[in-house]
Design a protein that fits this description.
298 residues, single chain, alpha+beta, 10 helices, 4 strands
């Protein structure tokens, strides 16, 4: 039985075969860094690396069947920044997920996030238990980002295909918000987990949701074979996102798109007839990467 992802990309994946699939969705590397902590022996945090890796990779997060080669490649780094107590820590989570570019050897970064507002409770030997209806500082964040990564990935294979997974992430955020936990409120900062999932599921950002599919499926997956046509599609897409930037006051979700895609976009427009028009639009839509876009003109 083919998964939804296989069905969505059709003939592009004919060569993948049809053997029985595994259930797990992720191929995620996990790294734990506690070098900033001092005053006690925190070597027990080493075990969290294996526990978190198993938690993400060995769990079945969806009802879809995945081939080994369909798994989502991702990386997760937990950087402990402060020991509040012997078992409570402040940490930064750095996460990235990728998806293949069909017809090419490269992979494209879909999501790239640095989350600095994580308060973790962890003591030696603590098992990681999946309890989505209850807020737990460690696993609720892992659950949230697992569903966010799934939502992003599915959105690149079919328009709005990630909706069920984003709804799961929103439900986890709502449970966390009810507990008053840090990093989840939608009003405390423009880059909280609550703000991200709130914007993703906000109808005002529907064009950006649709753009993820068009960008990956219609542009990236065909760029090598249909360069002129796909570059024009990309220019139209960027111009639509310029309009979105003008219409919304807070755009963390849009910022995340460009954080992952700016170097790819610049490369596709490099020295092209569309470079000037693309630069004019991108300089307004993504001024944070203006110097990178300037190189398109060379």
């Amino acid at each position: 039985m083919k998964s939804l992802k296989l069905a969505a990309i059709g003939l592009l994946l004919v060569g993948l075969g049809s053997k029985p699939a595994n259930g797990q969705e992720f191929n995620c590397s996990v790294d734990v860094n506690y070098q900033s902590l001092s005053g006690s022996d925190y070597s027990f945090l080493d075990e969290l690396e294996d526990r978190a890796r198993e938690y993400i990779n060995m769990r079945q997060w969806t009802q879809d069947r995945y081939e080994e080669e369909e798994r989502i490649n991702c990386s997760l780094t937990i950087v402990f920044t402060e020991a509040v107590s012997l078992t409570r820590f402040r940490a930064r989570l750095v996460l990235a997920s990728k998806r293949p570019i069909y017809g090419a050897a490269q992979q494209s970064t879909v999501l790239q996030i640095s989350d600095d507002s994580w308060l973790i409770d962890y003591s030696q030997g603590t098992p990681l238990i999946h309890e989505p209806d209850r807020y737990e500082p460690l696993t609720s964040v892992l659950d949230f980002y697992a569903y966010v990564m799934l939502g992003y990935d599915y959105d690149t294979f079919s328009e709005l295909g990630g909706q069920p997974h984003f709804e799961e992430a929103r439900r986890i955020a709502q449970v966390a918000q009810a507990s008053g936990a840090a990093g989840w409120a939608t009003l405390s900062g423009d880059q909280s987990r609550g703000e991200l999932i709130g914007q993703i599921t906000d109808s005002r950002f529907r064009d950006l949701r649709a753009a993820y599919f068009e960008y990956h499926y219609s542009v990236l997956d065909h760029f090598a074979r249909e360069t002129t046509e796909t570059r024009q599609l990309l220019l139209a897409l960027v111009q639509r996102l310029e309009i979105l930037r003008e219409e919304v006051s807070r755009a963390y979700y849009l910022d995340q798109f460009f954080a992952a895609k700016y170097s790819e976009i610049a490369a596709m427009f490099q020295s092209s007839p569309e470079a000037t028009s693309a630069f004019d639009s991108l300089s307004k839509t993504d001024p944070a990467h203006l110097s990178d876009y300037s190189q398109m003109m060379n």
